[in-house]
Amino acid sequence: MFPSQLKTRTPLTTPDIIKMVMWPFAVLTVVHRTIILAFNGAVTNDFLPIYTAAVNFLNKQDVYLDNFNWTHPHYLYPPSGTLMISPLGFLDYDVARRLYIILNVLAVLIAAYYLLKLFGYGLSSVAAPIVVFAMFSTETVSNTLIYTNMNGLILLAQVLFMKFLLERRLWWAGVPMGLTIAIKPILLPLLVFPFLKKQWQPFVASIGIPIMLMAIAWPLSKDPGRYIRETVPYLAESRDYFNSAISGNAVYYGLPDWLVLGLRGGFAVIVLISLWLLFRYYRHDELFFLCTASGVIMTAQFLLGSLGQMYYSMLLFPLLMTVVMKHSVLRNWPAWLAVYGFMTFDMWFSVPWRQFGEAAQFLRTTFGWSLLLIVVFTVLVNRWLDARKAGTLHLGIDPPYIRDDVEHKGVPEKYRFPEGRPEQNSLAAQIDKTY
């Protein structure tokens, strides 16, 4: 049977060849990251405090015992999150950790599948093995599995939230959002999308699920008050280790307050202008708008917030997928220089040039996030300036070569806005009224 696979019965197309090459790389990379790197583990262990909290919660013992002066991973979930992860405490540590790793691997793979579907690709497409290989080659997926945290599950929740919004399954959209908010509110800013469209249904589960879980968990926890008194203030601080946010680097390198304020303020302006241009000129192309704007919002949160860790970049996968769209803001090399900064698994520590290597390793994530925001801003502003100069702002800000032949190849009709000028399209007029 096996030798028959070496026979070529029909001529191979270029996509056939690419799939033939990439699927072995994709599958074995997933296996390597899971069975070898993740199961091996590392000095950094995000799962140990999670497992300890689950066991203590089940045994009616104190959960919030961390000394925040230490640099080891801390347990930062609220009581509602403790309730959700508590079943892990019934298992042996090694079994629980490996199960947690496998759940995150499955979550990333399912998220990849739905992202492919959103952009009109299937498992038989040439894009499928490329996307899986690219995802599991990154630092964000690799270290999520090695350190064993829940970023993979959060990515799946993000993709499902976006999928349900695009499909107008608004009640369901709030469920993945509510479940993540109950553990960590990292996706909370994305609720701006249903808010702008006056869609109240997603807010029911987004708010109701965390409240319900907190109401159940609070009386079952021995020390829930310590989460409010000690953990919440710590979350608002900018720590000086494993923190790629501007504020984190400022603490580490001892930057003056005026410089930190200026950098954060400058990037905040860049973000607001980018979001305004996206909303003003691209909101009718819902898939492009949702994925691009969410990427800008998430990047801004990582860069301008109190804590930004490199493996948070997993939540930028929807933005990176927009490169297949002709009017993508990522079709330029500076964008992918930025992506290299926060996605690559490369280490830049150097023996002969130690100081340079440490700076490159510690700052490349901050550089990547910063450059990505600058690229998106520059592309959008240049398009706006060119359209204003040409007097075609009423047609949008896409260049003529894009506007006259926008490719929605493979993008399902229900995820995009019909062709034509917004002011000439009755459906566009109806959507305009909802904003």
UniProtKB/TrEMBL annotation:
Name of the molecule in the record: Alpha-(1->3)-arabinofuranosyltransferase
Gene Ontology terms, MF aspect: hexosyltransferase activity
Entries under InterPro entries matching the protein: GT87 (IPR018584)
Lineage: Bacteria, Bacillati, Actinomycetota, Actinomycetes, Mycobacteriales
Keyword Transport annotated: no
Subcellular location, record wording: Cell membrane
Family: Belongs to the glycosyltransferase 87 family.
Membrane topology qualifier: Multi-pass membrane protein
